[in-house]
Design brief:
- It is built from 15 helices and 13 strands.
- It is about 50% helix and about 15% strand.
- It is α/β, with parallel strands linked by helices.
- The longest helix is centred in the first third of the chain and has 26 residues, at about 1-25.
- Strand 7 and strand 8 form a beta hairpin.
- The chain has a domain at about 230-340: Helicase, Ruva Protein, domain 3.
- The strands form 5 sheets. It has a 5-stranded parallel β-sheet with strand order 3-6-9-1-10. The chain has a two-stranded parallel sheet with strand order 2-11.
């Protein structure tokens, strides 16, 4: 038993060191956005996909390209545009002719989705039909073309970007597509000090690059370690109640949720909260999930899974505000229950 614990502690320390090295390599290129980087890495080690939302020029695409440089994974950037077709993503069957026999046959030509790290740049510029080409790949890690299913190499991660302020020529992501993303991370503006550092790095001839830190098999080992982290029944129930509290009219819903929310989170939201919380626990040197770990992953995991009704949209409500109310009420009821 003692030997097993020492082995677990050694693996946790190795994970912490690798996480820090990866974060530092990204920091050589990306200025600031520490929380955005950590949330992205948490999704990577949880086996989830991530949606980065922010105005143009904040470094979303650069972050993904830098992450790909720090990982020894095959990388492809897909520029989503209104004329992009599903076959441009997944591939298509082409008619080829055998040089010797002259017989014609179908040969599958793989699309860019057959890479391990995918940058779906400005994903909301493509039509819903094209966006739907990502659904099977993101959920089942496979692609079906012409009735034949092709597996994708693991680890497989999609990092998508979108601009929240430009509406012309864009198509809102369908709810099924949004639900495939583990996290939706908001990329904020840089601070005064960060802008000054960005100016120094980009206008003085510097060319910082990230060096490779991990490869695919190492990522899969780290993911397996994360899934072995323990979550106590009362902490798991806390996560369950957080998700149920986003369902309007439900037993745990706040009055604001019942009034302004049309649909709440799916079970994928619960999975995302727990898996990310396990990552934070390991990084904190623990092999069990705490309430603070859950709170840290809560907003990113659920903000895109809470859909406002007409009244909520008309009021211009921010889903984060409703979710913070849910978190506060659920924590309060948990503390009251524990005190009795």
């Amino acid at each position: 038993m003692a030997a097993d614990m020492r082995e677990v502690e050694a693996k946790c320390r190795e994970f912490q060191e690798t996480f820090v090295r990866l974060r530092d390599e990204i920091g050589k290129v990306i200025v600031g956005h520490a929380d955005v980087v950590e949330q992205t890495l948490a999704a990577l080690f949880s086996g989830g996909h991530i949606l980065l939302e922010g105005v143009p020029g904040l470094g979303k695409t650069l972050l993904v390209r830098t992450l790909a440089s720090a990982l020894t994974l095959s990388f492809k950037r897909i520029q989503f545009t209104p004329d992009l077709m599903p076959a441009d993503i997944v591939g298509t069957n082409l008619v080829t002719e055998d040089a010797q026999t002259g017989r014609r046959q179908f040969q599958f030509q793989a699309g860019p989705i057959f890479n391990q790290c995918i940058l779906a740049d400005e994903i909301n510029r493509a039509t819903p039909k094209t966006q739907s080409a990502m659904l099977e790949a993101m959920q089942e890690c496979s692609v079906t073309v012409g009735g034949k299913t092709y597996g994708l190499a693991e680890p497989f991660i999609v990092l998508a970007t979108q601009n929240p302020i430009e509406l012309e020529g864009t198509y809102p992501l369908p709810e099924a597509q949004l639900d495939r993303f583990m996290f939706k991370v908001l990329v904020p503006y840089s601070s005064r000090e960060e802008l000054a550092l960005i100016a120094d790095r980009t206008t003085a001839g510097e060319d910082a690059k990230a060096s490779p830190v991990m490869d695919g098999p190492q990522i899969l080992v780290a993911r397996a370690l994360v899934r072995r982290v323990v979550i106590a029944p009362h902490v798991k129930d806390f996560c369950v109640r957080l998700v149920l509290a986003t369902h309007p009219g439900g037993e745990f819903a706040t009055p604001s949720v019942t009034r302004f929310v049309r649909f709440g989170s799916s079970p994928r939201g619960l999975q995302s909260i727990i898996l990310a919380a396990k990552v934070w626990a390991v990084l904190d040197g623990r092999y069990h999930v705490s309430f603070d770990d859950v709170a840290r992953s809560y907003l990113s995991a659920l903000r895109h899974r809470v859909l406002l009704n007409f009244e909520g949209q008309a009021e211009g409500l921010d889903p984060d505000r409703l979710l913070r109310e849910v978190l506060e009420q659920t924590r309060r009821t948990t503390e009251e229950y524990s005190a009795t």
